[in-house]
Specification:
alpha/beta, disordered C terminus, 7 strands, Rossmann fold, single chain, metal ion binding, globular, GTP-binding, 6 helices
C-alpha cells in the first residue's frame, strides 16, 4: 500500500516564521532546514508556494524582490528557507554585496541546513551563478537537488532533452551526488519527487511512508 508522504501534511500547515537581513537574526540553529535558492525570476517563490499549498513566498514579475532570508515553520524542528534571488542586474551593487556576504555566512555556517534546493529556469539553465552554487555545494558536502522550473513552457520531449543534457553536464563536472528533476508550479508537475527529497533530508522518510526513488 502506498502511504502518504509524511512531509505533505507539514508543508500544508506551514506558516511564516520570520525574515532575517543578517545571519544573527536567524532562528536558533537547531533542527532541520532546507533552503531554496535560485537566480532571480527562476520561479523560486512559485515553487515554494506550490509545495506548501499556500502563498507563503511573495511572487513578483519584477525579479530581485526577495531581499531577506525568509523562514517558514513546518513544525517545531523543521523549517523551509527562501533565500534572496541572485543575479538580477538592476539590484544596486551595495545590496548585492550585502546579500552575498550574508548568504555565504548562512550557507557556510548553518548547522541545521540539511540540503539546498536549486531552481533553474529550464529555458536558461546553468547560468554562472548556478555554477557557483554547484561548486559550493560539492565543496561543502551539502546535498543539492535541482528543480528545472517552468517545464510547462516546453513540450514534454523538449523538457526531457534539457533534463538529460543538464544531468549529464552535472555528472561530468560535479559527480553523481546532485539530483535533478522537471518541475512546473502551474501544472503541479514534479511535486512528489520534490516531497521525497524534502522528507529524506528532514528525516521523515522512515516514518511510515513508502517513497519511490527519484526517477532518472
Amino acid at each position: 500500500m502506498q502511504l502518504k508522504n509524511p512531509i505533505l501534511g507539514l508543508c500544508q500547515q506551514s506558516t511564516f516564521m520570520l525574515s532575517a537581513a543578517k545571519v544573527d537574526q536567524c532562528p536558533d540553529d537547531e533542527g532541520f532546514e532546507v533552503a531554496f535558492a535560485g537566480r532571480s525570476n527562476a520561479g523560486k517563490s512559485s515553487a515554494l508556494n506550490t509545495l506548501t499549498h499556500a502563498s507563503l513566498a511573495r511572487t513578483s514579475k519584477t525579479p530581485g524582490r526577495t531581499q531577506l532570508l525568509n523562514f517558514f515553520k513546518l513544525d517545531d524542528d523543521r523549517r523551509l528557507v527562501d533565500l534572496p534571488g541572485y543575479g538580477y542586474a538592476k539590484v544596486p551593487i551595495p545590496l548585492k554585496l550585502h546579500w552575498q556576504r550574508h548568504l555565504e555566512a548562512y550557507l557556510g555556517g548553518r548547522e541545521s541546513l540539511k540540503g539546498l534546493i536549486l531552481m533553474m529556469d529550464i529555458r536558461h539553465p546553468m547560468t554562472d551563478f548556478d555554477l557557483l552554487m554547484l561548486d559550493w555545494a560539492v565543496a561543502a558536502g551539502m546535498p543539492m537537488h535541482i528543480l528545472l522550473t517552468k517545464a510547462d513552457k516546453l513540450t514534454y520531449g523538449a523538457a526531457k532533452n534539457v533534463l538529460l543534457k543538464v544531468q549529464a553536464d552535472i555528472r561530468k563536472g560535479w559527480g553523481d551526488a546532485i539530483s535533478i528533476q522537471l518541475f512546473s508550479a502551474p501544472k503541479r508537475m514534479g511535486l512528489e519527487d520534490a516531497y521525497t527529497v524534502l522528507a529524506g533530508w528532514m528525516e521523515l522518510a522512515d516514518k511510515g511512508a513508502e517513497i519511490a526513488p527519484i526517477a532518472e
